[in-house]
Design a protein that fits this description.
Layout (H helix, E strand, L loop, with lengths): L4 E5 L7 E6 L2 H12 L9 E7 L5 E8 L21
Antiparallel strand pairs: 1-2, 1-3, 3-4
Length: 86
């Protein structure tokens, strides 16, 4: 049986949710990149691509973790109307 990979939002944290199943890490990665492209990450702070090994171990292939600095990505620091622009 081929490996099945899953995309989880906040696996093992406060709101663990299975977001996608796939047979390949690359398909999951493309899906995650589309899912996160607007910056809100669906409300999750962690997104992981993982699989469960035959012994039940959770094996992470890729992980994205949102931190407070992530929210600054969409701010236009050149905006002279900003109260933070000096």
């Amino acid at each position: 049986m081929p490996d099945m990979f899953q995309v989880y939002g906040d696996y093992g944290y406060t709101s663990q949710t299975l977001l996608k199943d796939s047979g390949s890490v690359s398909e999951c990665t493309q899906w995650v990149e589309r899912y996160m492209r607007d910056g809100d990450w669906g409300g999750y702070s962690v997104i992981e691509i993982a699989r469960h090994l035959p012994d039940g171990e959770y094996d992470v292939a890729m992980r994205w973790e949102k931190d407070d600095d992530t929210y600054d990505e969409h701010w236009d620091w050149n905006n002279t109307a900003s109260p933070l622009h000096y």
